[in-house]
Each structure stands twice: as structure tokens, then as C-alpha cells.
Amino acid sequence: MDAAKLNQLKQFVELCKANPSILADSSLSFFTDYIHSLGGRLPPSAYKSGESPRKPSKSFVVDESDEDIEDNEEEQQPQGTAHDEEEDEIIESDIELEGEIVEPDNDPPQKMGDRSVEVTEENRDASQEAKAQAMESISEGKLEEAIEHLTKAILFNSTSAIMYATRASVYIKMKKPNAAIRDADAALEINPDSAKGYKSRGMARAMLGQWEEAAKDLHVASKLDYDEEISAVLKKVEPNAHKIEDHRRKYDRLRKEREDRKTERERQRRRAEAQAAYEKAKKQEQSSSSSRAGSMPGGFPGGMPGGFPGGMPGGFPVECLVECPEASPVACPVGCPEDPELMAAFKDPEVMEALQDGTTLSILFLLLSLQLPSLFCYYSVA
Questions:
Q1: Residue 184 · residue 200 · CB < 8 Å
Q2: What is the structure's pLDDT at 367?
Q3: Nearest 10 degrees: CA dihedral of 104, 108, 109, 111?
Q4: Which of 297, 274, 304 is nearest to 359 (CA)?
């Protein structure tokens, strides 16, 4: 665009802002019409004296018929409704839990022994002797030393669940829950009914804040071999486990309800689209039927709604039915308009019902059954 002309246009716009009354000049009507076509409004000073402000034009570029506008609104409505009702993602709240947890231990895995090796009586005895030494170290508070003795006991006899469970209990005292869980798992692989294995793993999981898993293990341990220590730990673990379970159920329910609402909105949207398509097709069918109103299905132009006393509103008078045009190669058997047979037939309810039905076959069938040859000839010729 030419820079000089662009600058002139800019100056003109600034002038209009400063003095809107210049827009009242009739020579600028093309410009004001353009502003109105964009939906804009002019200040009162831009109108001549006595002239009322114009409302913004409803149609800016292309004029549409009322039916097209209605169809567009119907098509756009379902999508707009679904968009308006779109919900935000559910954000879970924090859970207030009680109880202390420890930092996970990341030490290298302890020696676990080889369970495939056959245990001799000599090794079994050596394992029991190492376990006795470990128990003595535990009583003296020498936990590291106890771990060393229990590791020897496990290496001598790697098929003993009680050895792994005992070392797991020592790891718990040392606040090494991961090591304790590894030993408890080994004990339960050897003996799935090891109460000490469930107890040690449950306590270790509680130390890591795995409240639900801890509660499950401790409940099993309590059923296999109840003791006061298990009961005391359960009293601390269960409240947190219940809170977590309730929290999960709550948000599972909220997510399901949200998904159900989404499904229902989608169902309603599809139903609305189907209804809109049906209404549109119905309007088109009605419009098409109206355009075909000039000819009746079965023969008569103009149709015969509601009978025709003295004439047929959609087409021509009664005498047209019985008029015998000289130019016709087929002699019309009906006769003159005053034919008594014809006039009597028009008063017959069954004849009128057949005429209302509109199909040529139904009319011919009735005329034959009523033995009205004049009318039958007319319809068969037509």
C-alpha cells in the first residue's frame, strides 16, 4: 500500500476521532455504512439533526435466510453446550497422616545364601550355633555383630525361614526397612505361614509409610501368632490405612461421577445432533411437499383438501372434471356438469374418503365396487 495514501488515511481517522461531526456529511455515507456493516456504532454528533442513530447491522457480509440461520444455530448448539460444561481435572487433596517414617536404606543387598545347596547335618548344627551367638549379641545391643552371626547361620542353612525372619527383625531395630523386607520376603518364600516373616515385613513397611501394605501384613501375622507388639503397631498403622482407603474411594467415586457426566453429555450431544438432523430433514420434506402441492398423487392437479363443494381449491372447478373437450380423441362418458350420477357420487362419503386418500388405485377400486362407470371411465382415461 502506498505510504502517502496510508498516512492520509491515518490523518483522516485522527480527524474523525477529534471531530466526529464531520461523519454527518452525506459524502461520507459510504464510510459510515461500512462502519455499521462491521457492527460499529457512531457517536451522536456524527448524525444530522433529527436523525436517530442506527443500530449495528445483524448481517455483516452475507445475508442468510431465516431457515439457514435456524439450521446453523441448531447445528452449533450441541457443540457449544458440551464445551460450556467441560469440567476441570480432579486434583486430589493431601492426606493428613500420623506416625513417623524413616529414610529408606540404600545399602547393597545382604548375603542371602544358596537355597539349592543341600544342607548337611553338620551345616545345620553350625547354623544353630551361629544363631545362638546372634541372640546373645542382640541381648547385649550389639546389632551389627548379631547381623554377622545371623548371616553365617543363613549361609550354613539357606533353607531356614526362621533365620531370615530373625535377621529381618534385627534390621528393623537398626532402622533398615528395605533390608528387613528382603529377608522377610525370603522367609515367606520358604514358609508362606511364617508369622515372624509377616510381622517383620509389616513393621518394615510401616517404617517406610506404606500404611495399607503394613496393615495387611500385620493382620495376617496377628492371625497366625498374635502378640502385643503386633497389636501396638496396628493401632498406629490402621488409622492411616483407613484414611488412605477412604481418600482413594472418594476420588475414585468422583472420577467415576465425572466420567458418567461426560458420557451423559456426549449422549445428549449426539441426541441433540440427531434431533437437529431430523428436524432439518423434516423441514426439507415439508418444503418439498409444499412445492409438489400443484399436483395430487394419483392424477388431479391442485389436490383436494377437505372436499370440494362447488370446486377444488387446489386446481379447477368441478365442471372441469366432466367437461368433454372436442379436441380430445377419447369421448368422455361422464356427460354434462349436471350428470345426476356424478353429482350423487360427490355426496357419497366413501367416494369422498377415497378422493381424500389420493391414490388412483384406491379411487378406481371404490368406483368399481360402487358400480359408478362414469367416474371410473374418467379416472381410467385420465
A1: yes
A2: 53
A3: -140
A4: 297
Cα–Cα distance list, 338 to 57, 319, 321, 333, 343 (Å): 62, 9, 12, 13, 7
Side-chain-side CA neighbours of 320 within 13 Å: the count stands at 13
Q: Residue 204 in contact with residue 180, Cβ under 8 Å?
A: yes
Q: Where are the alpha helices (DSSP H) in 292-359?
A: 319-322, 340-346, 349-357
Per-residue pLDDT, 284: 87
Asked if 143 contacts 170 with a C-beta cutoff of 8 angstroms, the reply is yes
CB 222 within 8 A of CB 234: yes
C-alpha cell at 65: 435466510
pTM of this prediction exceeds 0.85 = no
> What count of other Cβ atoms lies within 10 Å of the Cβ of residue 361?
11
Centroid of chain to Cα 229: 51
130 has a pLDDT exceeding 60: yes
Which cell goes with 324? Answer: 368433454
Cβ pair 169, 197 in contact under 8 A:
no
27 closest CA partner among 41, 12, 37, 40: 12
**Which domains, and CATH codes, for the chain?**
12-57 (no CATH), 121-238 (1.25.40.10)
Q: What's the Cα-to-Cα distance from 177 to each of 27, 29, 49, 181, rounded to whole Å?
A: 91, 87, 92, 6
Cell of 104: 529408606
Q: Which of 105, 97, 95, 98 is nearest to 204 (CA)?
A: 105
φ, ψ of residue 301 to 5 degrees: the values are -75, 135
The SS3 assignment for 268 reads helix
Share of the chain above pLDDT 90, in %: 37
Least trusted range by pLDDT, from 8-17, 153-162, 347-356:
347-356
pLDDT at 111: 93
* pLDDT of 371 strictly over 80: no
**Cell 392424477 belongs to which residue?**
299
β partners of residue 311: 317
3-state secondary structure of 99: coil
**Structural Rg of the chain based on CA atoms:** 49
Residue 317 main-chain phi, psi, to 5 deg = -70, 165
Closest CA to 63 of 37, 101, 93: 37
